UniProtKB/TrEMBL annotation:
EC number: 1.13.11.54, 1.13.11.53
Pathway the protein contributes to: Amino-acid biosynthesis; L-methionine biosynthesis via salvage pathway; L-methionine from S-methyl-5-thio-alpha-D-ribose 1-phosphate: step 5/6
Cofactors (names): Ni(2+); Fe(2+)
Assembly and oligomerization: Monomer.
Binding site for Ni(2+): 99, 101, 105, 145
Entry keyword set: Amino-acid biosynthesis, Dioxygenase, Iron, Metal-binding, Methionine biosynthesis, Nickel, Oxidoreductase
Protein name: Acireductone dioxygenase
Record-linked InterPro entries: ARD (IPR004313), ARD_bac (IPR023956), RmlC-like_jellyroll (IPR014710), RmlC_Cupin_sf (IPR011051)
Length: 179
């Protein structure tokens, strides 16, 4: 279940309703899918064939189409990142640059963990959303943010797009941000 850590205060927000209500105020969509719907061999598996990825998409077809229907996503795929991903260190360096997109960034974590670091409103500042299997998030269009992995360095996620080009990252310089 997702947790939020507010960087300026160190406050940790836990519990589905608390997390959802905090994220709602920051206009970040947060939902939950049931990761145990996946066959056991696809839970916490980071070495996926094309058929496995198809099976994950099929398992969550109802959830994907429901979310897509509500929010206008037209295409989706699966992304897998782990220490066996070629150039993982380089990829992470790229992901960890602060940026914005012209459409929202939607990720449904089906295995492993990931962290979105998002700039909230002025009173909140940057906060980390720590996600695990079953967590679904949408970082709003234009939001200043970046993504990284946890120490486990493993994630499988469904990505949904309105237009795949909408996801191109636009770098954002923020001298006030301290990692
Ligand atoms: Fe992004």
């Amino acid at each position: 279940m997702a947790k939020v850590r507010v960087r300026n205060t160190g406050e940790l927000i836990e519990g589905e309703e608390n997390v959802r209500s905090f994220l709602e105020k920051q206009e970040v969509l947060y939902e939950h899918w049931e990761p145990s719907k996946l066959p056991e061999r696809l839970q916490e598996n980071f070495d996926l064939t094309a058929e496995d990825k198809e099976e994950i998409l099929n398992t969550f077809d109802t959830e994907i189409r429901d979310l897509a229907g509500r929010r206008g996503y037209k295409t989706w795929d699966i992304v897998v990142l782990s220490e066996s991903t070629p150039n993982i260190e380089e990829l992470l360096k790229k992901f960890e640059q602060i940026h914005t997109h012209t459409e929202d960034e939607v990720r449904a974590i089906t295995a492993g963990e990931g962290i979105f670091i998002i700039r909230g409103d002025e009173s909140v500042g940057y906060f980390d959303v720590i996600l695990s299997a079953g967590d679904v998030i949408s970082v709003p269009e234009g939001s200043v943010h970046f993504f990284t992995l946890t120490e486990a360095k493993k994630v499988v996620a469904v990505r949904l797009f309105i237009e795949t080009e909408g996801w191109i990252a636009h770098p954002y310089e923020d001298p006030t941000f301290v990692k």
